[in-house]
Design brief:
homodimer; about 400 residues; alpha/beta; Peroxisomal Thiolase, Chain A, domain 1; 2 domains; nine-stranded mixed beta sheet; two-stranded antiparallel sheet
Amino acid sequence: MSKVNACVIAGGQCKFGVREASYIDMVQEASKACLDDLPDLKPRDIDGLLFASTYVGRNSCQVNPAPVVAERVGLKPTSICTRVDVLCAGGSSGILLAQGLVQSGMAEVVMVLGSEKLYTPERWQIQYGEIAASDHDWDAPQGIGPPPLWFAMQAKDHMKHYGTTREQLAAVSVANYKYGFNNPKGHFQNELTIEEVIEAKEIAAPLGLFDCCPLTDGAAAIIIASEERAKDLSGRPLVYLRGGAQVSLHSVTANWPGKHLGDWPHMKLAAEKAFERAKLSPEDIDVAQVHDCFSISQIIELEELGFCKKGEGGPFMASGQTNLDGKIPVNTDGGLLSCGHPLGATGIRQGIEVVKQLQGRAANQVKGARFGLTHNLSGVNVEHTIVTYGREPKK
Amino acid sequence: MSKVNACVIAGGQCKFGVREASYIDMVQEASKACLDDLPDLKPRDIDGLLFASTYVGRNSCQVNPAPVVAERVGLKPTSICTRVDVLCAGGSSGILLAQGLVQSGMAEVVMVLGSEKLYTPERWQIQYGEIAASDHDWDAPQGIGPPPLWFAMQAKDHMKHYGTTREQLAAVSVANYKYGFNNPKGHFQNELTIEEVIEAKEIAAPLGLFDCCPLTDGAAAIIIASEERAKDLSGRPLVYLRGGAQVSLHSVTANWPGKHLGDWPHMKLAAEKAFERAKLSPEDIDVAQVHDCFSISQIIELEELGFCKKGEGGPFMASGQTNLDGKIPVNTDGGLLSCGHPLGATGIRQGIEVVKQLQGRAANQVKGARFGLTHNLSGVNVEHTIVTYGREPKK
């Protein structure tokens, strides 16, 4: 038995934003957009479903959602029908698991569908959910939750140790909003200036309103198939999954693995593992979607991924190196800052954008892109997930 | 690249029952039992963790539990660290996903750990959780939840169409409790008579107290590794994962796929798919762990798996065909009825028992067992999951 290669054959998403819609409404929109992306693919061809969502049980009161989602989008899976959850990285986790199922021959065509209904008029529900997402025994009782105090502390440490400036943080928001301007399915379609970012309402110093991704509802779907089925079904250039990494070294902020909060060795390890497994290096990557839940995150991620030297993420951003004519175009559809971050859907949205880039059909196209990656962090920065994509399979 | 085979190399569980323990206490006990099962394996050898749990967010207030569990059991995963959830089949789902990761070469050694803290003095929490596990739009508002009314209706239909008797239902509980008698880690260690089962408190006619699995807390862990690592690490006979199936054809009871409620074509399809993928037939199976959440479930499952003809599950049970000297020993460690059913942990407990059987070290040993399977149904019987195991790999 020789190993099968796994390809992405279709993708689609619903409009992200504050939606007057249930999670089911949104998965139906995303699934339809995904199936419309490849009309030759019929729902009966799909033998697996992985549904990524964290808050569906809390906010939508649906436990065991995978069979419900399968029925509502017209699938009858026979290989796998399971929910996956790792908060902000659920979608990417689903893509890695689908790659495993397809490459091992355990499934042929798997839809990975992610959705989150986050906005409810009841603010306590959101805040309580965020706190529940921290380590419940140690961090949550101290008020340490994902947004945004904990990331403000990381920003301060990065500024202290590397001289990163407020303007350099703002450059992330400006760059990503600029890319998001022509993405009608993102949360926002407006450009920002450095001044607007700096003068915006302070959320947790040094982070202001536009340094933080918004609270967003949304869903996205992507389909992974064996290379053989991909060749049958898709007329587009093939895009291969080349492997990735999901690294978790700690769950309690007091066990922080770095020398300070601007040093993310768990992400560095994830990058090393992913590049090693994908037989790629940072220099091979033509386009990247990284987890810009806050402006500071993207600066540190560019460093830990090896796109610039450690500590130089601020000047790298400020000099426009993530623009289309820069060293490495990043978050080319707007990222979390402009598209919003419906947790389980985010890794899938990122994957769709990378695939479009490698197929030459992105709105903000990187010329001749052959290799791309996506990155997510989860929770209070306790886990890093990287997925790599290429126009050719790993040899 | 040639495909890797995946083996089970270790397993262990905590004591199942009504536990004065948190889910973390229980995963630590289970993980220790699992690591003690193979002392040459060190936590640093484990590069992946899949954590199966449905109610950890609701009952234990921990969202994104995988990194928390990894830290508390001493793992530092670099390949995968994700929660999976498909209610009663989460553990089996994790095993299938781990098989995919290992066979594809994306991970080398993966722990699948399942846990559920179900019992709380607040009954509403349990009942509300059960209702949330039905299709929330259609079934839950009508009061259709997993236990036990819906299964009583299935029992009635099976009795009506096939002449199954109350005594035959009771024979399931008697047989499984008998196996559970010498399993100190199960919920119960007592034998029952047919009369005791029939005369017990009625829960939902025709099902009485002992026809229903109890509300149980627990955790279980199993480790899947590449054949190469298994040969290095384990001195025991190798047990291979040969593939399986997870089938979901509907989520709303009104879309029931069978001719009546005693007819489970979705389970029949799961069995056909699993046997086809495993290159096995029902006749090859030496030992099976099936999902006896209710006595009626096991009767129908024996039929749909092909161990007896359709409609003959009742007489098959009553004539002792699932005993050690019968046609197919079933639920040899006590099953859900005697061990209890801590959802995410159940498929793992079943897998551990099958592995012990194939290695010749089970408490109720089936002589010379070479092939085994586990089966779970999920929710209001909306999904069926089958995992197959063998002393030799699939050719």
